Amino acid sequence: MKIGVLGGGQLGRMLALAGYPLGLRFRMFDPQPDAAAGQVAELVTGAYDDRAALERFADGLDVITYEFENVPAAALEYLAERAKVYPPPRALACSQDRLAEKTLFRTLDIPTAEFAPSDSLADLTRALDHVGLPAILKTRHHGYDGLGQVVIHTAADADAAFATLAGRPLIVEGRVPFDREVSVLAARGRTGETAVYPLVENRHERSVLIRSLAPAPHTTDDLRARAARKIERLLHALDYVGVLTLEMFEVQGRLWANELAARVHNSGHWSIDAGGTSQFENHLRAVAGWPLGDPQPRGSAAMLNLIGGVPPVTELLATRGVRVHLYGKEPRPGRKLGHVTVCGGDDEVAAALRVIEPLVAAARVLR
Ligand code: AMP
User: Fold this and answer.
1) Which of 107, 166, 268, 341 has fewest C-beta within 10 Å?
2) pTM as predicted
3) Nearest-atom index, ligand 1, CA of 175
4) 173 touches ligand 1 (CB under 6 Å)
5) What is the pLDDT of residue 28?
6) Using CA of residue 94, residue 96, residue 100, residue 106, what is the dihedral sign?
7) Residue 345's CB: how many other CB atoms inside 10 A?
8) What does DSSP say about strands 200-205 and 300-307: parallel, antiparallel, or unpaired?
9) Are 335 and 304 a contacting pair, CB within 8 Å?
10) In this predicted structure, what is the pLDDT of residue 265?
11) Domain finish residue from 158, 174, 190
């Protein structure tokens, strides 16, 4: 079976690497000729609105999936006439619009911060009464890693915040006084079968993920079950096929949804080394129409992102149990260049982290 992947970044690369042992073949699509997945799979380059390039990409594919969240809806519609496309384009459209996403959460009784669309300064001023202060003004589309976001501390900040982002559709939300950030990933197959990964604790620096711990420490069965029920509700409502990610805030034992990713996710990378079945393999099994694999980890795992710089690989490998994944990308501040995973018993993971976290932090160059 040949699978097409829209987006040729590290997620596409790791999808291909997970699929080869299963006999799957791949073709990637990316505007950049040096896309990371192009080092391990056939790559078609072109703009997402280049019909001729999309046609070359689609030729002979059995299934098309995506790893890039800003694939234009028109490209997916065009491709859907040529091959099966999973996850459903509707799920991608929802994840591309913070307003649609939060509205869906509310429809499914999944708590979120208060929010309101704010396309004019008058809307914003009115909305601040409703969402409260501090608040965060965000672009509805194309925001990631904290880009396209401005914090509003007092009503007097509203004008300047609006001026920074004006001209694009905006949403304002209350700033959540969270205790920690967590995420849950799950796969759903074509027959409706699901596999839910354990809740993961995520630490961000300047809004960029730097560390995930799986399973999230200090988590009750009840919290885990509530996270699982939320993502199951989303999978069902979207008639989803593939891996879906739900990022949440934990606030005094409650879970508030922040955003959806209709794709494999950075907070699931630990599953390559520690999971029964990695998120990448389960995504492929789902879109191929195959049975899903066990998502449960075999122990505890920690994943550290290598951002903007990579410590000497030999120093990382000198700690037993450390697994290194490099994406073959040129270093640039803020760029995700790779990740490392450690897994095993809690004490083993903690001991390894004491050694490698300082190495990783010293090499990190954020934007
Ligand atoms: P996002 O692009 O929405 O995932 O935001 C990036 C990061 O900004 C999140 O991981 C949080 O650390 C922070 N953030 C976003 N929205 C909120 C919010 N409503 N309240 C508190 N922190 C937020």
Assistant:
1) 107
2) 0.97
3) 20
4) yes
5) 98
6) positive
7) 10
8) unpaired
9) no
10) 98
11) 174
Q: How far is the CA of 146 from the centre of ligand 1 (A)?
A: 7
CA of 347 to the centre of ligand 1 (A): 31
- If asked whether residues 6 and 27 sit together in one domain, one would say yes
* Minimal-distance CA residue to ligand 1 atom 9: 207
Looking from the CA of residue 207, the nearest atom of ligand 1 is 7
Indicate whether residue 89 lines ligand 1 (CB < 6 A).
no
pLDDT at 313: 97
Q: Do 150 and 262 share a domain, yes or no?
A: no
Kindly report the protein residue whose alpha carbon is nearest to atom 1 of ligand 1: 146
Residues found in the chain: 367
Q: Tokens representing 21?
A: 């042992």
Q: Structurally, how many domains does the chain consist of?
A: 3
Per-residue model confidence (pLDDT) at position 122: 95
Token representation of residue 314: 């030999």
Q: Is residue 337 part of a domain?
A: yes
Quote the domain boundaries for residue 137.
114-174
Strand partners, 243: 187
User: What is the rounded CA–CA span in Å between residue 107 and residue 120?
Assistant: 25
Q: Both 276 and 352 in a single domain? A: yes
Bridge partners, 213 (sequence order): 201, 302
Q: Ligand 1 in contact with 176 (CB < 6 A)?
A: yes
Q: Are residues 121 and 149 in the same domain?
A: yes
294 domain-assigned = yes
Question: Which distant-in-sequence residues (6+ apart) come within 8 Å of 346 by Cβ?
Answer: 217, 300
Q: Which atom of ligand 1 lies nearest, measured to the CA of 98?
A: 3
Report which ligand 1 atom has the smallest distance to the Cα of 177.
21
Q: What local confidence, expressed as pLDDT, does residue 142 receive? A: 86
Taking phi over 0 as left and psi of -120 to 50 as alpha, with beta for the rest, 307 belongs to beta
Per-residue model confidence as pLDDT tens digits over 157-168: 999 999 999 899
Residue 90 within any structural domain of the chain: no
Q: What is the CATH number of the domain that holds 239?
A: 3.30.470.20
**Is any ligand 1 atom within 6 A of the Cβ of residue 101?**
no
